[in-house]
Amino acid sequence: MIVFPIVIILSIIIYVYYKFSLLRESDPLIQEIKNAKARIFLGIFMSMFGINQYLFYQTQIALFITIIFLFFGIVQGYGGIKRYLHYKKELRKRNDS
User: Which domain holds residue 8?
Assistant: First the structure.
């Protein structure tokens, strides 16, 4: 399964990109939006990493580790999506005013 390593590498690269681009922004609202995007890609990374490890090893301990990574990855991704949608609305409100 070559798809999982590609998604893992791309998601960690995009996560690092958003974290570094966050430092260049002076507007706190834009910083929050970029931080939310970074959290989404961190969640994707964690979830795909856990699934990849289980597919590689296929042991019971790998299954437990996969469940932990999936849980935290889904929590990060869901939290990032919620924050992104909230701050995107706030940015629209501010731009409309």
Answer: 3-96
